[in-house]
Amino acid sequence: MREIHVNQITETIKQLCMDANYYLSEDIKNRFNEYKEKETSKLGKEILDILIENSKIAENEKMPMCQDTGMAVVFLEIGQDVHITGGNLEDAINEGVRQGYTEGYLRKSVVRDPLDRINTKDNTPAIIHYQIVPGDKIKITVAPKGFGSENMSKLKMLKPADGVEGVKRFVLETVKEAGPNPCPPIIVGVGIGGTFEKSAYLAKKALLRKIDKRNENPFYAKLEEELLDEINKLGIGPQGFGGLTTCLGVNIEVFATHIAGLPVAVNINCHATRHKEAII
Amino acid sequence: MQKRITTPLTIEKVEELKAGDSVLLTGYIYTARDAAHKRLVELLEKGEDLPFDIENQIIYYVGPTPAKEGMPIGSAGPTTSYRMDPYTPKLLDKGLKGMIGKGKRSDEVVESMKKNKAIYFAAIGGAAALTAKCVKSSELIAYEDLGAEAIRRLYVEDLPLIVVIDSNGNNYYSIGQEEYKNSLK
Ligand code: SF4
């Protein structure tokens, strides 16, 4: 049994909240550059330039790349041979978010109740997903999620007969309807299978994978590429002003499902797709 | 070509602007988003005065991150505009001439913009660190309790914007996407 003190968890999460908001990851920067070469819309190219410049300013000045520093979504993969000491794990996670958002000059965007809408003023509580895995380590991922793109996400219970064509249609419909709202170029996470809530979780999880890494299953790897291609034929373009670069990457995650169902969730994320991880 | 525009946004300036124009904006603008809009419209419904004179002004839909010491503002990109749609026509009727945000607007807003001769600009969504560089000063005007959602008066210099919907109702989201698709033929 390896012991890990909650303070170490708090400290790690605090740092990850800040880093995720300041530093755009390399896979996205690389895609910006690739698409800048391919983009034929003049305004589209200019916008990609502005977004590249924005990520540099954010990095150099340790400033959030986007003002919507999101709701903190925290994934914990906890090794089953770990014993957490020194306090309550959930409190430790929220304390990390509180410190990260306060000390890192990040925006506090969380209301305590969806209907009375009083701001908690420290961006807590976080959305926490726990998973117990073999081993004696904890892997922590912090993925701040902006709501311009979150609001454009959708879930649908398709019929098994709808098949892969039905899945594609639903993804394309969702992206088309979102149009300029989620700050294209976007990144699309798709969850297929499981139950109602599992598909949404898979879609969110899909967004944690680097966009230059394809699904391990060749069938879904190909589907990811096809969807990216078809989304970029919609013509929405950077910020919705027309162009090739509507989407930088599509990631799909799948799970077994029921004989009667085909749940599909589409989680839209923007170019400010943020996630940083650490293993303790 | 980029057009340079200063506030206040008089009717002559409005009429010069066409959907698709790139604009560099200089002058005072006001920030307001969901919660502040709700309060402004509640004031109007009660027949009370707004906390600032809205005539010929521009509202920027933004909730910035906190400013570091010595800086006027933190990161400050636009938020999605459609959430303000239910309130917007009432403000346009009061003399509001420009809005800065991102994304689509409702038919009611577009109709009211045509009637009142107003402009809807887009700032680059997600380019919030870069946008912050254009903000030279920030002053709290109302609703401090709303934190990031409070109303502030910002002085901006050469803020890069794109005219999405002009005062004739032309919409550059449709026009730009059409033009792109035609360019492929
Ligand atoms: S959709 Fe993304 S880039 Fe746009 S404002 Fe929200 S978090 Fe920022």
Order of helix and strand elements from N to C terminus of chain A: EHHHEEHEEHEHEHHEEE
* Gross morphology of chain B: globular
Structural class of chain A: alpha/beta
Biggest sheet character of chain A: 4 strands, mixed
CATH topology of chain B: the name is fumarase
Form type of chain A: globular
**Based on the structure given, which CATH architecture of chain B is correct?**
Alpha-Beta Barrel
Look at the structure and give the mean pLDDT of chain A: 97
Bound molecules: iron/sulfur cluster
Could you name the CATH class of chain B?
Answer: Alpha Beta
Percent range for helical residues of chain A? 25-40%
Verbal overview:
The complex is a heterodimer of chains A (280) and B (185). The relative contact order of chain A is 0.20. In chain A, 39% of the residues lie in helices and 25% in strands. By secondary structure, chain A is an alpha/beta fold. In chain A, the strands form three sheets. A four-stranded mixed β-sheet of chain A has the order 4-2-5-10. A four-stranded mixed β-sheet of chain A has the order 6-9-7-8. Chain A contains eight helices and ten strands. The model of chain A has no long low-confidence stretch (mean pLDDT 97). Chain A folds into two domains: 2-20 and 65-145, no CATH class; 148-274, no CATH class. The radius of gyration of chain A is 19 Å and the shape is globular. In chain A, helix 1 packs parallel to helix 4. Chain B is α/β, with parallel strands linked by helices. Chain B has a single domain, classed as fumarase (Alpha-Beta Barrel). Chain B is built from six helices and seven strands, in the order βαβαβαβαβαββα. In chain B, strands 2-3-4-5-7 form a five-stranded mixed barrel. Chain B is globular, with a radius of gyration of 16 Å. The A-B interface holds A 40-41, 43-44, 47, 50-51, 53-55, 57-58, 61, 63-69, 105-109, 117, 119, 121, 148, 151, 179-183, 235-237, 239-243, 270-272 and B 22, 35, 62-68, 74-77, 79-80, 82, 102-104, 122, 124-130, 132-133, 146-148, 160, 162, 172-173, 176-181, 183-184. Bound molecules: iron/sulfur cluster. Iron/sulfur cluster (SF4) sits between chains A (66, 68, 146, 148-149, 182-183, 270, 272) and B (77, 125-126). Iron/sulfur cluster sits between chains A (66, 68, 146, 148-149, 182-183, 270, 272) and B (77, 125-126).
